């Protein structure tokens, strides 16, 4: 079982329908109109964001920098499903239909409308998109390799275009669509499909990384594009790496874009 040294200030929260601890750590469930979303507790910490210069197929915008996240937070263990989107928003814009499939064909602006509506109903959630730094920290889950699975992936681990494997390795299945959330193995922090399936929207404007070690980065103050992370069902292997970055116009939609929710919360040290 994952050992915590820093805990949430309150556990469980008032909004939690159920809660517990398992081999991945602390979790809380949120249920709305019969649809449940589980969240994982993420401790604060320091990590190297970006990719080393010797990582195959890296891009120029992945220059490594030391990042410290000073606040613990909750991150959804899956992307938002069509079932949750529909009970909140009353429609389903997705191209590939299925209540347990990730909602897609949603823009950054659409995600903000969803979040605003949820926070209006339950302000104590403090719901938001993760920052780009939070997203990569969670995706890596303590690893430094190109993927949280290690140096390589295949379609048994990640939903991507297996015709274009990472670093010229063996080809694998190309499903040509999304898969249900929690279909594929999670990382060591209990987070599912952070590589592939759908690109995940982050809060930040897209821009260059800071040149020096930084604390709680929020991205650029203004910009033209929002950050996308994780790759998708039609991405090649290189774009599914933990460090890979992509960007998109905030109002645009695609069947390869979805989002994962974060909840902001203060943490306390063990023993306090």
Automatic annotation (TrEMBL):
InterPro entries: CTDL_fold (IPR016187), Sulfatase_Mod_Factor_Kinase (IPR051043), SUMF_dom (IPR005532), SUMF_sf (IPR042095). Coiled coil: none annotated. Pfam families: FGE-sulfatase (PF03781). Residues 41-262 form the Sulfatase-modifying factor enzyme-like domain. It comes from the Bacteria. PANTHER family: FORMYLGLYCINE-GENERATING ENZYME, SULFATASE MODIFYING FACTOR 1, 2. This is Formylglycine-generating enzyme family protein.
